[in-house]
UniProtKB/TrEMBL annotation:
Source organism superkingdom: Bacteria
Name under which the protein is recorded: Uncharacterized protein
Region Disordered, annotated ranges: 1-33
């Protein structure tokens, strides 16, 4: 015969194990989601603010440090920044 307390303990340990597995999997997902980026900086005396991305038609702007942080696989944006005279690759 099983006591009620024993079943509660078994269920709680199963829940704890499931929570631990979920926490571990989310940590692994965060680590694997790191995307390689390319950085470009606007020259000190220049005033290059941003550009319209050809695929998404969104305005891509520099951050407060006058830097553009672009994913490495975004070839269109990298091509635009490579051709811009006021921007240098870091």
């Amino acid at each position: 015969m099983v006591k009620k307390d024993e079943t509660k303990q078994e269920v709680s340990t199963k829940i704890d194990n499931d929570e631990t597995k979920q926490a571990t999997s989310t940590e692994e997902n965060k680590k694997s989601k790191k995307v390689e980026v390319v950085k470009y900086r606007v020259s000190k005396t220049k005033n290059f603010v941003g550009f319209v991305h050809p695929k998404t038609r969104k305005f891509v702007t520099a951050d407060l440090n006058k830097e553009f942080i672009i994913p490495k696989d975004d070839k269109e944006a990298i091509a635009i920044l490579e051709e811009a005279a006021d921007v240098n690759r870091i």
